TrEMBL record:
Ranges where the Inhibitor I9 domain occurs: 130-201
Cofactor: Ca(2+)
Record-linked CDD domains: Peptidases_S8_PCSK9_ProteinaseK_like
Source species, domain of life: Eukaryota
Record protein name field: Proprotein convertase subtilisin/kexin type 9
GO molecular function, one term: serine-type endopeptidase activity
Family designation: Belongs to the peptidase S8 family.
Length: 724
């Protein structure tokens, strides 16, 4: 007789070898001993199990003789052991024992034909080892129970244990059973069975709110992110999950620090949890923004979700992960490539510099803003301007707040994306899903949208991706009152969405954004400076003072070294500089000062277009900004862009007849706001800044007749895009 290994799903012998009656006696003896041992206490079980199996092995050696006598001896041993046990058999176990004793005198009855076996057409949704047995119409409830018990008997005779999970007698008659697939051939031959169906997962067919939100304004699913590589620096990723199957490459970079404390247990589901979820949001088959995008797992978080310490003499650092990606791209270039950084740490100049170099080497880096309800500029890599930093919003398009935690905000955030109660792949099992919240999930949404964009525009630079993300985002949907007062003006009020036309290129129209500086000091003539990114052109410069005490602003430096510098006034409580940064390789801009104090600056030649204007006051000058051509006590500066293509600009002005809390003027469709300034007959306004395609000027308290001046530009071949 050939015996299988004990690892073969509990099978004690090869069922393909025919057994004679003596061999059946032997197997039944073994089953009696096994079942009896299950009911014994731990002390009696060991003694009984060893003695009983010794007898059974002796039988094997004794060339299969005296079977009936030994069978009786086995039964006697079983009864003796049972008498010494502290537990009793259940009713089902007693029935099984009774039926097994009768196996030679009464053969098992099986139906003449086999029942039908059904299986889910989606392999990834199947639940192997769990089956629904459906009996024929008209079968009584007691026959259902009898069928289930007979299946247990037949399985037990062949060394299998099964579990009846539930019986049904309403919409259909049958039962749910957990068993090995090797028992199926017995189950389909049971009397009264009409068919057996393998269990499978079912899913709600309404799209998750986050996917609806990013597509409800013109986008559609499915989105194609294929041919775009996404490196995810996170925990490990469960590569065999149904959402990610055949799209995840687990790299050989897997250096992580030990967890804090000695009691931490590295369960696979815990170590996979965060990374699997973010990967599912990026490219999950059903829960992902860009199904088809390939994912490369670079593990830099341990099972507690901690990033490797940044500064160590060995290779265990987040820098090593970035260097690994850089080296991998040199050996096997992937273009375009996105690097997702779903983590946050304290501000690190070194980490920011490493991320900046990755961007300038051609990668698009997308980072989580952080979950501390704080200024994102205090954290890295969120504070690096070259990195696209994403805050989290909820289903109401408001900043995410969960208990004492919530999304970071401020000028270092580039845009928001869904991050509340996001359903995606779970590391618990290959078909499991779970919901998580945070800026990691928000950043994963933007990574997926960027993959869709880069699929259509593979040569787009990181700064182009940023402008297109902001341009297509839903504008002014968040309630400003939900933001901290000190960050209401500097936090971008926009939520990412999938593009209507992802093939649109930044080069086809003029796209601009406002870049705010941090607030200056409160000393007289302290300065604040705002900078554009590499690849952007500074079209204008303005400033804003919350208390209305400021001393003007101007553009300083040349080429990539330009900065918008704002000056705090005497007794002022600080000032912001606001640079207007635009994506257009066709123009070069420069600032020109007026020839004399009190006169208006102009562009030097017809080959230049005025894109913005601003004023700088002398320390003792009265801050007035007349609407006419004179600027009393101030030096005027004009931002002029040399025309290398068909760029045209014009000014729009609106003057309030009385007092208004703020004065606004906008550019028309197809025109982009490039400059924003204010004019006043009396005291200087608090300053001017752009919000969307609108120029906003806030008058000083009680000031009347304040005017807002917008300079609007476009290329003659531009479509209907507006700036962000």
């Amino acid at each position: 007789m050939q015996q299988k290994s004990s690892q073969s799903r509990g099978v004690l012998y090869d069922k393909t070898v025919p057994l004679n009656k003596s061999e059946k006696h032997l197997i039944n003896s073994a089953h009696l001993l096994l079942i009896a041992s299950r009911a014994c206490s731990s002390q009696n079980k060991a003694r009984f199990f060893l003695g009983g199996w010794c007898v059974w092995v002796c039988v094997c050696v004794w060339k299969m003789r005296l079977f009936v006598g030994l069978y009786q001896l086995s039964s006697l041993l079983y009864l003796v052991a049972l008498a010494g046990c502290e537990e009793d058999y259940t009713e089902d176990e007693e029935m099984i024992l009774s039926l097994i004793r009768q196996v030679d005198s009464r053969p098992v009855l099986e139906s003449g034909s086999s029942a039908q076996f059904l299986r889910c057409t989606k392999d990834a949704w199947r639940i192997p080892g769990q089956y629904i047995v459906v009996v024929r119409n008209g079968t009584r409830d007691n026959q259902v129970e009898r069928t289930a018990r007979r299946l247990r008997v037949n399985a037990a005779r062949r060394g299998y244990l099964i579990s009846i999970l539930r019986t049904y007698s309403g919409a259909f008659h049958g039962f749910l059973v957990q068993m090995s697939s090797d028992v199926l051939h017995m189950a389909v031959k049971l009397p009264h069975v009409e068919y057996i169906e393998e269990d499978s997962s079912i899913f709600a067919q309404g799209s998750p709110w986050n996917l609806e939100r990013i597509t409800e304004r013109g986008g559609s699913f499915p989105n194609d992110g294929s041919e775009v590589g996404v490196y995810i620096m996170d925990t490990t990723i469960q590569a065999n999950h149904r959402e990610l199957a055949q799209r995840v490459m687990v790299t050989d970079f897997n250096s992580v620090p030990e967890e804090d404390g000695v009691r931490v247990h590295r369960q696979a589901s815990q170590c996979d949890s965060h990374g699997t979820h973010t990967a599912g949001v990026v490219s999950g088959r059903d829960s992902g923004v860009a199904p088809g995008a390939s994912v490369n797992s670079v593990r830099v978080l341990n099972c507690q979700g901690k990033v490797i310490p940044k500064y160590r003499r060995d290779t265990l650092s987040v820098f090593a992960g970035l260097e690994y990606i850089r080296a991998s791209l040199q050996v096997q270039p992937i273009s375009p490539v996105i690097v997702l950084l779903p983590f946050a740490g304290g501000f690190s100049r070194t980490l920011n510099a490493a991320c900046r170099e990755m961007v300038r080497s051609g990668a698009v880096l997308i980072a989580a803003a952080g979950n501390y309800q704080d200024d994102a500029c205090l954290y890295s890599p969120a504070s690096e301007p070259e990195v696209i930093t994403v805050g989290a919003s909820n289903a109401a398009d408001q900043p995410l707040t969960v208990g004492t935690m919530g999304t970071n905000v401020g000028r270092c955030v580039d845009l928001f994306a869904p991050g509340d109660d996001i359903v995606s792949a779970s590391g618990d099992c290959p078909t499991c899903f779970t919901a998580k919240s945070g800026t990691s999930q928000a950043a994963a949404h933007v990574a997926g949208i960027a993959a869709v964009l880069l699929k259509e525009n593979p040569t787009a630079r990181s700064v182009e991706v940023l402008h297109l993300l902001r341009h297509h985002a839903a504008q002014q949907v968040m309630n400003p009152e939900a933001l901290p007062l000190e960050h209401r003006l500097t936090t971008p009020n926009m939520v990412a969405v999938v593009f209507k036309s992802p093939s649109a290129r930044a080069g086809e129209a003029l796209l601009c954004r406002s870049v705010w500086s941090k607030r200056s000091g409160v000393m007289s003539f302290d300065t604040a400076a705002a900078h554009c990114l590499h690849g952007e052109e500074m079209f204008s410069c303005s400033s804003y003072s919350p208390d209305g005490v400021w001393a003007g602003e101007r553009i300083e430096g040349r080429d990539d070294q330009k900065e918008c510098v704002a000056h705090n006034g005497v007794g002022g409580q600080g000032v912001y500089a606001v640079a207007r940064c635009c994506m257009d390789d066709r123009v070069q801009c420069q600032s020109f000062a007026s020839a004399h104090m009190g006169t208006e600056a102009k562009c030097p030649s017809p080959q230049h277009q005025l894109t913005g204007k601003n004023c700088g006051w002398a320390p003792s000058a009265r801050r007035q900004l007349p609407r006419a051509g004179e600027v009393t006590g101030a030096t005027s500066h004009a931002s002029c862009c040399q025309i290398t293509s068909s760029l045209e600009c014009r000014g729009n002005e609106y003057q309030a007849s009385g007092f208004m809390e703020q004065v606004e003027v906008s550019c028309e469709d197809s025109w982009t706001l490039t400059g924003c300034s204010g004019a006043s007959q009396g005291s200087a306004p608090h300053g001017a800044y752009a919000r969307g395609n609108t120029c906003i000027v806030r008058p000083s308290r009680g000031e009347r007749g304040v005017a807002a001046v917008a300079i609007c530009c476009r290329g003659k071949d531009s479509g209907s895009w507006v700036e962000t």
